[in-house]
Amino acid sequence: MKKYLLLLIALLLCVVPTFAGAEGAEAFYFAPFEAEDLNGEETVTEAVFENAVFTFINFWATWCPPCVAELPALAVLDEETDGDIQVIGVLMDAISPRGERDENAIAAMRVLLDNAQAEFPVLYPEGEAILGVMFGIQAVPTTLVVDQQGLVVDIHVGAMSLQQWLAYADSLLDDA
Description:
CATH superfamily: Glutaredoxin
Largest sheet: 6 strands, mixed
Structural class: alpha/beta
Distance between the termini: 43 Å
Strand order of the largest sheet: 1-8-7-4-5-6
Number of domains: 1
Number of strands: 8
CATH topology: Glutaredoxin
Shape: globular
């Protein structure tokens, strides 16, 4: 019960002001977090935002065809933007409906990332900050654009092609 109460509080503190109407929604800072990289390579915190001009946090699921289809584009975006853009995934189905780690989804994620030649980190959705945002997302894929200070400057819902992602990234970088 305490776990669900914490999730509800996180949802109210982190999500309600940010997702109330995507257009015109006020920008917000991504709350401090610590999450496990599902490739087992590292623990990721909000300090990761300092590594690039913009961080694209892509919330996706292995059962989502548009999510899977855009993985190669996100991999190229992450590799070919000279460090100005970094991509981080959050695997929505890494947590089962019972709130437990879903090893089948994590195994499927590894195969999908290998097929897409994607080397960006994918996080296990844990901690109040990530779970709070995750529960505010109504569709996958959804990508949050975060600047170096942790400010979420845009939210993009839906998949895009490589050309669309590159054009979008160029426009963000031009305005930065």
